[in-house]
């Protein structure tokens, strides 16, 4: 998760963006949106820029409008990647905010949702968050997963997947190139009892689903297509 592509088009973080509110959930500050009494929840796991990214919160609100309770935790504890900060050390950041820690934190968020009466949960992860979502997909803690332009994954991680999973990848992606994703897709499709989807989006780059330019019509169109695919997956399997 250190390719230059991971940090292209950084968002302007906006703490008060969105129709939802920020609450504490599972010990983490979390953007929540949608009906809090819903039995169906979606966990969105941000890329390295964190939970205050406007496009991510806009997507959370869109998913909430479909009837889900949506939660977007701050897995970085107020410390997202900030390349404009003098002396920012990306390697030190990666060690501090590794995906194993993210996985443990995500399990606490999921346990809290279940304690509030949620009985079916989906998780979507973007870049860094995609790696966390794959770890969650190796258990029955959630009912479905979507990974979007994930960071580097291993074949072993894909082999451990136990729940319905959709992989949405970019044609131009140095960290999850189409050839590798196709190999992952073959491993998943070989599991006859497991629903899976692999889709490679042409002409787009790593990060396209959440770091698009809102004034770039083709970029918005590609991102919205991925959002529809994600929502369709959750509507089908989180119920």
Secondary-structure map:
Blueprint: E1 21-25, E2 28-33, E3 40-45, H1 54-64, E4 69-73, H2 90-96, H3 99-115, E5 120-126, H4 128-136, E6 144-148, H5 155-159, E7 165-172, H6 178-189, E8 196-205, H7 217-237
Parallel strand pairs: 3-4, 3-5, 5-6, 6-7, 7-8
Antiparallel strand pairs: 1-2, 2-4
What does this structure look like?
Helices cover about 35% and strands about 20% of the residues. The protein contains 7 helices and 8 strands; from the N terminus they run E-E-E-H-E-H-H-E-H-E-H-E-H-E-H. Strand 5, helix 4 (about 130-135) and strand 6 (about 145-150) form a beta-alpha-beta unit. The protein is globular, with a radius of gyration of 16 Å. The two termini are about 30 Å apart.
Strand order of the largest sheet: 1-2-4-3-5-6-7-8
Number of strands: 8
Strand proportion: 15-25%
Number of helices: 7
| Helix and strand pattern | EEEHEHHEHEHEHEH
Q: Whole-number radius of gyration? A: 16 Å
Low-confidence stretches: none
Helix content: 25-40%
| Envelope shape | globular
Give the end-to-end Cα distance, rounded to a whole number of Å. Answer: 32 Å
Mean pLDDT rating: 96
- For the report, how would you describe the main beta sheet? 8 strands, mixed
- The class by helix and strand makeup works out as alpha/beta
């Amino acid at each position: 998760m250190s390719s230059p592509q991971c940090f292209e088009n950084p968002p302007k973080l906006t703490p008060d963006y969105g129709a939802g509110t920020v609450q504490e959930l599972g010990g983490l500050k979390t953007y929540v949106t949608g009906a809090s009494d819903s039995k169906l929840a979606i966990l969105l796991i941000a890329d390295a820029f964190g939970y205050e990214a406007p496009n991510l919160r806009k997507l959370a609100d869109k998913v909430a409008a479909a009837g889900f309770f949506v939660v977007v935790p701050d897995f970085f504890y107020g410390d997202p990647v900030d390349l404009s900060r003098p002396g920012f050390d990306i390697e030190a950041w990666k060690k501090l905010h590794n995906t194993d820690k993210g996985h443990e934190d995500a399990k606490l968020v999921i346990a809290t949702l279940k304690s509030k009466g949620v009985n079916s949960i989906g998780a979507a992860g973007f870049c860094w968050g995609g790696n966390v979502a794959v770890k969650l997909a190796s258990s029955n803690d959630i009912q479905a997963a979507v990974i979007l332009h994930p960071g580097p994954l291993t074949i072993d991680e894909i082999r451990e997947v136990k729940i319905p999973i959709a992989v949405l990848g970019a044609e131009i992606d140095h960290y999850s190139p189409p050839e590798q994703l196709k190999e992952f897709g073959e491993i998943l499709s070989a599991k006859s009892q497991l629903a899976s989807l692999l889709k490679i989006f042409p002409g787009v780059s790593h990060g396209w689903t959440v770091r698009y330019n809102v004034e770039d019509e083709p970029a918005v169109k590609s991102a919205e297509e991925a959002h529809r695919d994600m929502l369709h997956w959750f509507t089908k399997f989180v119920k």
